[in-house]
Amino acid sequence: MEYQIGQRWVSHADAQLGLGVVVEIEPRRVTVNFPAVGEERTYAIDGAPLTRLRFQEGDHISTVNGVELVVGRVEEHQGLLLYTGLDHHDNELTVSELELDAYVQLTTPQQRLLNGHFDKNEDFALRVATFEHIDRQQRSPVAGLMGSRTSLLPHQVYIANEVGQRFAPRVLLADEVGLGKTIEAGMIMHQQLLSGRASRVLVLVPDTLLHQWLVEMLRRFNLHFALFDAERLAELPVDNPFEAEQLVLCSTSLFHAQPDFREQVLAAPWDLVVVDEAHHLAWSEDAPSDDYQLVEALAERSAGLLLLTATPEQVGQASHFARLRLLDPSRFHDLETFASEEQQYRRWSDMASQIEAGDIPDDLPAGLDRDAAPEQLIAQILDRHGTGRVLFRNTRAAVSGFPRRILHRHPLPFPEEYRYSSTDLESRLHPERPYHDDSWLGFDPRVNWLEQTLKQLRPAKVLVICASATTAVALEHHLHLRAGIRSAAFYEGLSIIERDRAAAYFADEVNGAQTLVCSEIGSEGRNFQFAHHLILFDLPLNPDLLEQRIGRLDRIGQQQDVEIHVPYLEGGAQQTLLDWYARGLDAFNESCSAGHMIYQRFRERLEQQLNAPDEHLEELLNDTAEFTLDTRRELREGRDRLLERNSCKPEQAEALIASIREHENTDVLQNYLEALCEAFGVDTEFHSEQALILRPSEHMLTGHFPYLREEGTTVTFDRDKGLAREDMAFLTWEHPMLVEAMDMVHSTELGNAAIGTIKLKGVAPGTMMLECLYTVNCVAPKELQVERFLPLSPTRLLVDARGKDLAHLVPHERLNSLVERVKKPVALAIIKQVQKEVDAKMLLATRQAEARLEEVLKEAEATMRTQLGAERERLAALKAVNPSIRQEELDHLDYRIEECAVHIRHASLQLQALRLILTT
């Protein structure tokens, strides 16, 4: 092509120069001015690294005066190109290439290819693979469930899937101690955030659990929460600090002394509020606590609400009702009505058992089909009756994987020094309490027993729990300073960071403490299942606290039997309480979810025996044991069993887990990551099987690769290894490193234009083919989840010289193995010769892709209406018989169906990658 003054050319040697204009032509040289950078370059005409810029119909162009056009027609007049098109006001304008803005960016595959800006074939293959992987993740039925660093436990996966897919979920997670409510909440939040159903989350927890939640959310779910305390809030230079972060973690006590903080947190918009240890929210009809009123106000303003408690009813029916009232005040508006409804739960449970046994009862509720399959009838009963949609509770009896509990009683002589100091019940159970110094350490036989027992158990880790911080500190000092035992203390007088350091010192396998001495706060929320010896230096009067203590070790994932050691002073209140727990509640052998209720029933008689045991003690123990047995039987046969059915459906859970395992496919993931690293200049090094070390290099394509540390990052693709090795990042398709790196490929031009040659028998040399990759471009709010019905849907075409599609004959993988690179000077010469042919083939390819798009959009809308319509019909039918269905859910489905339809119809085709292939 001949040069002419005023023509616009681009440098394929340096794309940063922008758009150049020919300003001088000599017999053997051409001078081009690049206004964008204020430079002028002179090139030899024969070897100039320049390509004539020619926009195509449909391209967007800008002029130096800021006018933007969509090109409709291209003409040439006296060697210069004239572009005619429509501006923003649909006015037709014609501009010369002389008027084009110099700050041009060639990003579309066709623009880059025809202007000599192309990438390696490996980058082209990476781009194609990226869109295929994204499409597969969008289609996955377990999207949002794959990215957590957790064991795939059926009850947790089921709840996360059931709740995480809801619009603005409002539920009470009430699994028994040790079943992983925090993990369930994390999985739900992770899914809600990934899907776009939520973007702003507030988590409220007790002070003692702040850092545990912070670390757990980061380590297991890669969720970066901002930890807010009074100091942090005072430093933020904004009107409302709660609006400065998307994910906020704080304690309820933060709002006690600062009314301003309360107003600010209520003024901030939240998509989801999560409250841990919700049984601490004290409520009565006349005097709800400040914490309850705060959560109630947040619940009114937030669409979603998750409440977590291991004790849904034990604190009392009124307290249980109060928490359900937070979730849905219109549904749970009256305590008496709720109490009468609860009487029906036994009936529904009995009915479900009867149906399961093959006997269809005569008194089926209205609207149920007697001829339906037993599984369907039971599902309908669960759907329509009870609190199954708002309350999830799995019991340890129904979930396997727990260790045995073994009680070791250690009777010790009652010291004379305690005979007269133990006058009230508190000092009878904790006789060291009246002492204002540490003198009791010298004569309390439990102290010497503790020292000797720890030495005997060495090197095994041992958790010691006692009621008060004063006792814990005194014991730890004694063990550390006098007995030479590596120990740490964990109590409320420490700062959160100090507590975390103590817990980390205890967890360290090599140089850590043998024992951690905790006050009562160590029995709530913390997990120490790497240890299996528990010493209860004293016993709490509340059975729920005892269960919380044991639950620090007795959890899913515990590999050994839990050895529970209880030293006690003979003949006193400690022995009586131990007997009541062991023989009356059987609390050391198995969890008792109704412990507090049983305690309330026998409280008066128990306290009489604790103060002055007499001949009626045996009667108390027998009566408690009999009542406990009956209560456990009622819970198994009544509400707990009904809830159990709805809280985990094993077949569905196993199907979800199988799908997660299938999508993990570690070999595919590892191969893709290695290709990503190769493209971006990140060094990879073999670490071990299914594990790599990633390090930044001096040749990185960009200055940043997501989640890659300066010193390097070790990653594993194996879930078991990821759980065992805290020092490794566990990579899944939903890990932020993969998600953000794939987005870097998606949102840039990397690999979107390439050129290569291929040898094919029977095909004449010089034959041109175009490999085109199209995707569906649907611009829609993330929360609609249109991609669930209309994913990227990559469409690959391989157009030959006649415009015929050969994609089905020559798969992409096969083509990649055959294609060879072309040296750049040769490639540039080829491109100059075939520009018109490329334009013609692109037109044919686009028409074929657009014809396929019509079918894709029709199928997507039909699928959307079928799936969401069925969900809407089911909820509408249930709402007639179960008031737990909120009108907001139905309204949102109606809105979502119509909005999805609009966005699907307006979806368009987008060319993502283009490769020119010539046969040799």
UniProtKB/TrEMBL annotation:
Gene Ontology BP annotations: regulation of DNA-templated transcription
Motif DEAH box boundaries: 276-279
Helicase C-terminal domain span: 449-618
Enzymatic class: hydrolase
SUPFAM superfamilies per the UniProt record, alphabetical: P-loop containing nucleoside triphosphate hydrolases
Binding locations of ATP: 175-182
Keywords: Activator, ATP-binding, DNA-binding, Helicase, Hydrolase, Nucleotide-binding, Transcription, Transcription regulation
Matching SMART domains: DEXDc (SM00487), HELICc (SM00490)
E.C. code: 3.6.4.-
Pfam family, one: SNF2-rel_dom
Matches recorded under InterPro entries: DEXDc_RapA, Helicase_ATP-bd, Helicase_C-like, Helicase_RapA, P-loop_NTPase, RapA_C, SNF2-like_sf, SNF2/RAD54-like_C
A GO molecular-function annotation: DNA binding
Domain Helicase ATP-binding: 162-330
NCBIfam families documented for this protein: PRK04914.1 (NF003426)
Chain's role: Transcription regulator that activates transcription by stimulating RNA polymerase (RNAP) recycling in case of stress conditions such as supercoiled DNA or high salt concentrations. Probably acts by releasing the RNAP, when it is trapped or immobilized on tightly supercoiled DNA. Does not activate transcription on linear DNA. Probably not involved in DNA repair.
UniProt family annotation: Belongs to the SNF2/RAD54 helicase family. RapA subfamily.
Protein's name in the database: RNA polymerase-associated protein RapA
Lineage, broadest ranks: Bacteria, Pseudomonadati, Pseudomonadota, Gammaproteobacteria, Cellvibrionales
